[in-house]
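Repro case for the chain-ordering regression, as requested:
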Amino acid sequence: MPVVTPLLAAVIFAAGAFAGGLGASLGIGGGVFLVPLLNLGLGFPITVAAAVSLATVIATSSSVTAGRAGKRLMNFRLGMVLEVATAAGSVLGGITAQLLSQATLQILFGVVTMLVAIVTIRRLKQRNVILDPDAHPGRLGGRYHEEESGGVVVYRIRRMPVALAASFVAGNVSSLLGIGGGVIKVPVLNAWCGVPLRAAAATSAFMIGVTATGGAIVYYGNGQLLPEAAAAAVLGVQLGSWLGLKVSARVPVRYLKVLLAVVLVVVAVLMFVRGTR
Amino acid sequence: MSQATDSTLELLIGRVLRIGVTLSGIFLAAGLAAALVHPGAGAVLLNIGIVVLICTPAARVVLSTIEYLIDRDWLFVGLTSIVLLELIAGAVAAIVFHTRL
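-- result from build under test --
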């Protein structure tokens, strides 16, 4: 494993800033870029890359949630129910990662990234909202101020078992590969479970902190969360996502989606090829 | 379910997460600076930073449990407690793994 010299720390910081910036502009976590950079680019074992990436996911989720507090877009109750499934999934994922070979994890990373690219290109966008602000949201649904229609909208949750299953799988994949897992939860919550896209994304970003913690605990206890690398990456990602949010507001969404899909396909192919060699 | 409780909880959680992330960022930056100046130094600061970071979402879960306890919302007291137990199980599993391998 590489020794973290000042030069390497600077490179990891820059990689974190790049991954965080790209992730924040494209509305997904930076893990999907950071893990290949650390693993393929800098030669860290994939478990160490995943552990470091999970540390950055915790920091990003916490900052984003703190920034959104009070806006009522996050559905805390739904999030806390789904966390029961996602935390179980992530702890099991962290344990499973110890048993799989580096090549298997790389192939898995390639496959998941390719699926994310496909979902990104044909992003489902169900509105799922009830325009009557007095409608009852049910036990776990919610209501928030929607900018598109300029009024308060209500939504109800459907197919709770599907949401729980998706959260479990997302937690599992998150820990195994060091990514946030929102790429799995958000489309499922939006397409099948009645949650509007913005509420699904906000709730997922809130949950991801706990998801990543479940995996990070396992890696840290096992000595795979390299403190120097994690520090450089966390600080880099924090800076990068702050910059990314500022820049992305000025770039049309269409270009961002195409850019994201292209980058994801490249990442997927690189990881897959390395894993099968 | 009370909307008022959820709103206060949201602000409270936001504050705890902000404090946790800022605190861990300070420790990580200080530890990294120390480690780069004197190789091998700064390990304590770095590890405090990592532990604070990992504990931040966990602290948010504990806070929710307390808030729901005050609100006598037993279902959510139960759910948030299960999440906490799962995270503890992860820590125990990691230690078992580490000592065995």
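Ordering looks correct now. The mean pLDDT of chain B is 89.
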